[in-house]
Design brief:
The complex is a heterodimer. By secondary structure, chain A is an alpha/beta fold. Chain A contains 13 helices and 13 strands. In chain A, strand 2 and strand 3 form a beta hairpin. Helix content of chain B is 52%, strand content 5%. In chain B, the strands form 2 sheets. Chain B has a 3-stranded antiparallel beta sheet. In chain B, strands 4-5 form a two-stranded antiparallel sheet. The chains are: A alpha/beta, B mainly alpha. Chains A and B meet through strand 5, strand 9, helix 7, helix 8 and helix 9 of A and helix 2 and helix 4 of B.
Chain lengths: 429, 471
C-alpha cells in the first residue's frame, strides 16, 4: 500500500500532489503537524542490560536496545527518571500506571473500589494524560481526536488503562488488530446519505440524553455529559476521512507473537493518512502480565512472576523479553519511517515517539530509574543520537518536554506531581 | 450494561448473536460499568453495533403489517423500545421518535425511517445504562425492578411476562417478588445468568487466558467448554433442586459432561439420566471439579497458592493482603526428594511472606491430589503429595486430611455460607463493599437453600431500593 504511494510521490515530487494526497494539510495551509505516539511495555527493565555506555553524544547501544540500531541517529535514551508517587506502594504497578503519562497520582480517597486480591482500596486516576491534554490544546481537525491501540489490555481498571481524558475518564484501547481496523478503517467511506443518517441519529441521542439528564444524580450527570461529549467528538469529525489513502486489509489473527507489529502497521497507516495526531500503543497491562512469550524466552510462569525473581537466570530471561520489546518498538519506528509525509519527509520525521514503562525494575517495584526512549524527528525539534542521564529527576519534566516536542511550548507544568521545574533540560530544541 | 449484557439484550430482543466488544470495568472482581464514562472508542463501538443491527432489521421490520408510513414510529416504540429500554415510552416522549422516522423516510422511504429509529434506540441511554426509576415509596418502580431481576438472574433483559408483571404492579409486593424468583430460576435463561456469576466467582475466566494457558488451549474444544460449563451447571442444578451451600460443596452427583470422561478416569463411577456419579473418595462438590482446579493452576503446574487464595477470597471472604515489595513469586527449581510443600515452605520462610502464604498455600496443598487440568493423581512427578491441611484461621484451627475433607469442613461453616451470599450481592450490585448490604448478607447466609438465599436478597429493602451511589 505505502510502497505504491511512495513511488507516486517520488515520481511526481510535487507539493500539489502532496496536497491532493493530504487534503488535511492543505486545508490547514501549514507544514505537517508533529504527532505524538506513546508506546508502553510492562514491568520496567533490567537496568544493567538496558543502560547505554558513554556520554551524551558519544555512546553505544546496550544489549537490550541493540534492535534500535537503525534508528540511533534519531533517538534519545533517557536514564534516571522517577515516577513521583505521593502514596506508599501498597499496590505498586497499579499506583504507578495512571501516573505514567498523566504525572498525577491515583485517587486514594475513594474507598469503595478495591483489588479483592489485595484488600486495598483506591479509585481511578486524578489527572489527564499528556496526549489528551495536547489534543485538547491543539484541537486538531482529524477524524479521531486520538487513537488508543493495545494488546491484551483486559477489563477496565487503573492498572490496565494509561490514557485518560480526565479524572476517572479512561480511554479504552482497541486491543485487537481486528477491533482497531473496524473502528479506524471499517467505516471510512461515507456518502451524503450516510452522513445525514449518522448526524440525525447522533443528534437524536444527544437530545434524549439532555431530557434524561434532569432526572439523574450529580455523579450520573457527570458520566452522561462525558458520554454526550464522546458523541460530539464523533459528530464533529464525521466528514473528515483523512488523506486519500488506500485502506489496508483487515488483519488476520496471527497470535501474540505478531500482534504488536500488526497494531503498529495500523497505527502507522492511521497516522500516515492523517486520521489522528495523537496515538498510543499499550502492550499488556501494569497489573499482572501472566502471558507466556516462548519465542522471547518466557515459556513458563509469565512475565510478571519472573519479574519478581532475583536470580541471574531470571535476569537473562527478562533481558531477552525486553530485547524483543525493543525490536517491536523498532518495528513501529520502521513503519512510521516508511510513510511519506506531505512535506516529503517521513511521518517519523514529523513524530515524537516515546517508549515508557510503569516502574524501573520489577523485583522490588523500584519507581526510580524508569527507562524511557524518545524517538523521531519531532519536526526538527528533537536532536537524535544522544544519551541523557537525569538521575532522580521527576518524570513530569519529560511530559512537559513532550508538549514542547510537538510544538506546544506554552505548557510549563504538567500533572499534579510536577514540582515546577519546567521541561527536561536538553531534550527538545 | 456490560459487553455481555448488551449482547444478551440484543440476542433476546432480535434473536441476533452480536458481540459488542466494549471494555467492562473490573474493579470489584465482577464486571460492571459503574464508575467511568463512555469514551469515544466505546461510543464508536456501540454506534457500529447499532448500525449493523439496524441495517439487518430495517428491511424486514419495514415489511411488517404494523409498520405503516403513519404509525411505524409508534409501532417501533411499542414492540422495540419497550424491550430495549425495559419500559414503555410514554406519549410525552414520543414526538422526537416520530420526527426521526419521518426524516429518515424522506431520505429513503419507510425502510430508511426504520433504520434511523433502530439506530437511535440502540445508542439510547435507556438501552445502554441501568436507568433506575424510583416510586413515591422510595423503592424502584416495577419496570426498574423487572430489569434488576432479569439482569441479576438472566444477565439479560426482562421478557414480556416480567414486563407485564411490572405493568400490573406485581413486582412491588412480596408475593409478586416471590413468584418472580421462582419464574426466573425455572427459565432456561437462568443458566446464562449463572454462567456470568459463577465464571467470575470461581475465576473460571482463567481458562480463557490463551496467552497464559497453552496447556488449556491444546485441549479439544469440547473439553475446554465442558471444563467451564460443568461448575456452572452444578450451581444451577443445586439452586433448582433446593440444594444449599452445604450440598454445593459436598455433592457427589451432578450434571454429566461426557467430554470430561478422559479427565475424570475412574473418578466418575456411573452416568444415568444425564447425571454423573463420582467416587466420594475422589470428588466432593464444586470445588473438586476439574474446571475449578485447572483455572486455579499454572500452565503444566499446580499452584497451591492460587488454589488457597480462591478459597480464602471467594469462599471465606478473607483475601490475603498485598505481597511485600521484594516478593519473588517464582519457585526455585525443585531439589532432589523435595515435595511441592517443602519447596514452597522453604521459599516463603520469611515472616513477611509466610503470614499470608501459610494460609493460602496451607489450604491449597489439600488439592495437590488434582493436577493442573484437575485430573486425579497420586504423586507429583514421583514426589509424594502431602495434602494435609492445617491452618490457623479466625482464631481457630482449620484442618482436614486433604482438600476433599476440607470441602466437608467448609460446608458446615456459617462464614462460608455468608461469603457465598456476599459474592452474589457483589455480582448483583456491581459494587464491592456496601456497608448497608451487611445485614442482608447475614440473612442470606442463614437461608436453608440457595434458592431461599436468592429469594432473601430479592425481598430485602436493600435490593428493592436504588443502588448506592458510586463515589
Amino acid at each position: 500500500v505505502s510502497l505504491t504511494r511512495r513511488q507516486l510521490l517520488r515520481a511526481a515530487g510535487a507539493s500539489s500532489l502532496a496536497a491532493a494526497l493530504f487534503p488535511w494539510t492543505a486545508r490547514a495551509g501549514d507544514p505537517p503537524p508533529t504527532r505524538l505516539i506513546l508506546f508502553y511495555t510492562p514491568h520496567g527493565t533490567i537496568r544493567d542490560r538496558w543502560l547505554p555506555a558513554g556520554s551524551e553524544t558519544s555512546w553505544s547501544l546496550s544489549p537490550i536496545l541493540k534492535p534500535l540500531a537503525a534508528h540511533k541517529s534519531r533517538m534519545v535514551v533517557v536514564d534516571g527518571l522517577r515516577i513521583a508517587n505521593p502514596y506508599s506502594h501498597r499496590v505498586p504497578h497499579t499506583y504507578d500506571f495512571p501516573a505514567l503519562w498523566s504525572g498525577s497520582p491515583i485517587d486514594v480517597s475513594t474507598p469503595l473500589y478495591t483489588r479483592p486480591d489485595h484488600g486495598v482500596s483506591f479509585g481511578w486516576n486524578t489527572g489527564t494524560s499528556i496526549d489528551q491534554h495536547l489534543a485538547n490544546l491543539t484541537n486538531p481537525d482529524t477524524r479521531f481526536k486520538s487513537l488508543e491501540l493495545g494488546v491484551l489490555c483486559g477489563g477496565a481498571h487503573p492498572a490496565t488503562r494509561m490514557i485518560y481524558a480526565g479524572p476517572a475518564a479512561p480511554r479504552h484501547p482497541l486491543d485487537t488488530p481486528q477491533r482497531a481496523w473496524d473502528q479506524i478503517f471499517g467505516s471510512l467511506s461515507t456518502d451524503a446519505a450516510t452522513l445525514a443518517r449518522k448526524r440525525a441519529v447522533l443528534d437524536m441521542t444527544i437530545g434524549e440524553m439532555a431530557s434524561l439528564r434532569g432526572t439523574l444524580s450529580a455523579a450520573d450527570r457527570v458520566r452522561l455529559d462525558a458520554h454526550a461529549e464522546s458523541l460530539r467528538d464523533i459528530e464533529r469529525t464525521l466528514e473528515n476521512q483523512g488523506g486519500d489513502c488506500e485502506v489496508p486489509d483487515r488483519p488476520l489473527d496471527l497470535g501474540l507473537e505478531r500482534v504488536i507489529d500488526q497494531q503498529s502497521d495500523l497505527l502507522a497507516s492511521a497516522l500516515g493518512c492523517g486520521l489522528t495526531r495523537f496515538a498510543s500503543l499499550q502492550v499488556r497491562i501494569a497489573d499482572n502480565d501472566g502471558s507466556l512469550y516462548p519465542w522471547a524466552g518466557i515459556a513458563s510462569d509469565g512475565h510478571h512472576a519472573i519479574s519478581h525473581v532475583t536470580t541471574q537466570a531470571a535476569y537473562d530471561t527478562l533481558a531477552e523479553l525486553y530485547t524483543w520489546y525493543a525490536a517491536r518498538f523498532a518495528y513501529l519506528l520502521d513503519r512510521l519511517a516508511a510513510w511519506p509525509d506531505a512535506d516529503g519527509a517521513s511521518v517519523l520525521d514529523n513524530s515524537l515517539v516515546v517508549w515508557g514503562t510503569e516502574i524501573g525494575r520489577g523485583w522490588d517495584h523500584l519507581d526510580t530509574d524508569v527507562p524511557f526512549v524518545v524517538a523521531g524527528g519531532a519536526g526538527g525539534r528533537l536532536r537524535g543520537n544522544r544519551f541523557l542521564q537525569k538521575p532522580r529527576t521527576v518524570h513530569n519534566r519529560l511530559l512537559v518536554s513532550l508538549a514542547h516536542g510537538v510544538g506546544v511550548p506554552e505548557v510549563e507544568r504538567f500533572g499534579t506531581n510536577d514540582d515546577g521545574g519546567g521541561p527536561l533540560s536538553g531534550l527538545i530544541g | 450494561l456490560t459487553s455481555d449484557q448488551l449482547s444478551a439484550t440484543l440476542a433476546d430482543v432480535f434473536g441476533m448473536v452480536v458481540q459488542v466488544p466494549v471494555s467492562d470495568e473490573l474493579l470489584t472482581g465482577y464486571r460492571a460499568n459503574a464508575t467511568s464514562a463512555v469514551d469515544e472508542t466505546t461510543a464508536r463501538t456501540v454506534q457500529a453495533t447499532a448500525e449493523e443491527v439496524a441495517s439487518t432489521f430495517a428491511n424486514p421490520v419495514a415489511g411488517l403489517p404494523g409498520c405503516t408510513d403513519d404509525d411505524c414510529a409508534d409501532y417501533l416504540l411499542d414492540i422495540g423500545a419497550t424491550r430495549l429500554f425495559r419500559r414503555p415510552v410514554p406519549e410525552a416522549e414520543r414526538q422526537p421518535w416520530r420526527d426521526l422516522f419521518r426524516d429518515g423516510a424522506i431520505h429513503g422511504g419507510r425502510t430508511e425511517g426504520v433504520r434511523w429509529v433502530l439506530e437511535a434506540m440502540l445508542q439510547h441511554p435507556r438501552f445502554l445504562y441501568h436507568v433506575e426509576d424510583v416510586g413515591t415509596d422510595g423503592r424502584l418502580d416495577g419496570y426498574s425492578m423487572a430489569a434488576r431481576l432479569s439482569y441479576t438472574f438472566w444477565a439479560g433483559p426482562p421478557d414480556d411476562a416480567l414486563l407485564a408483571a411490572a405493568a400490573a404492579n406485581q413486582l412491588q409486593s412480596p408475593a409478586g417478588l416471590n413468584a418472580a424468583v421462582d419464574y426466573l430460576i425455572a427459565d432456561p435463561k437462568f443458566e446464562r445468568g449463572m454462567r456470568h456469576f459463577v465464571q467470575q466467582w470461581l475465576r473460571l475466566g482463567e481458562l480463557r487466558e490463551e496467552s497464559e494457558r497453552p496447556d488449556i488451549v491444546a485441549l479439544p474444544s469440547d473439553v475446554r467448554l465442558a471444563l467451564e460449563n460443568e461448575p456452572v451447571s452444578w450451581v444451577v442444578a443445586q439452586v433448582r433442586t433446593e440444594g444449599a451451600v452445604y450440598d454445593l460443596l459436598t455433592a457427589t452427583t451432578g450434571p454429566a459432561f461426557p467430554a470430561l470422561d478422559r479427565l475424570y478416569g475412574a473418578d466418575r463411577q456411573a452416568t444415568s439420566n444425564g447425571q454423573a456419579t463420582f467416587d466420594p473418595a475422589r470428588r466432593s462438590g464444586v470445588l473438586t471439579l476439574p474446571g475449578v482446579q485447572a483455572a486455579a493452576s499454572h500452565a503444566l503446574d499446580t499452584s497451591p497458592t492460587r488454589r488457597g487464595d480462591l478459597i480464602l477470597s471467594q469462599w471465606l471472604c478473607a483475601p490475603p493482603g498485598p505481597p511485600p515489595d521484594n516478593a519473588a513469586t517464582t519457585l526455585p527449581p525443585p531439589q532432589e526428594g523435595q515435595t511441592k510443600r517443602e519447596r514452597l515452605e522453604a521459599h516463603f520462610h520469611d515472616p513477611s511472606c509466610s503470614s499470608c502464604h501459610s494460609q493460602m498455600d496451607g489450604l491449597g496443598f489439600g488439592f495437590e491430589p488434582y493436577d493442573w487440568l484437575g485430573r486425579s493423581r497420586t504423586d507429583d512427578g514421583g514426589q509424594p503429595l502431602d495434602p494435609e491441611v492445617s491452618i490457623w484461621f479466625r482464631g481457630d484451627t482449620l484442618a482436614a486430611d486433604d482438600g476433599l475433607g476440607l470441602t466437608h469442613v467448609l460446608a458446615e461453616r456459617q462464614d462460608v455460607s455468608e461469603c457465598v451470599a456476599r459474592h452474589f450481592t457483589r455480582y448483583a450490585a456491581g459494587i464491592l463493599e456496601d456497608p448497608t448490604a451487611t445485614c442482608v448478607v447475614q440473612d442470606m447466609g442463614r437461608a436453608p437453600s440457595l434458592r431461599e438465599m436468592m429469594r432473601t436478597l430479592v425481598l430485602s429493602e436493600w435490593f428493592r431500593r436504588p443502588a448506592p451511589e458510586a463515589p
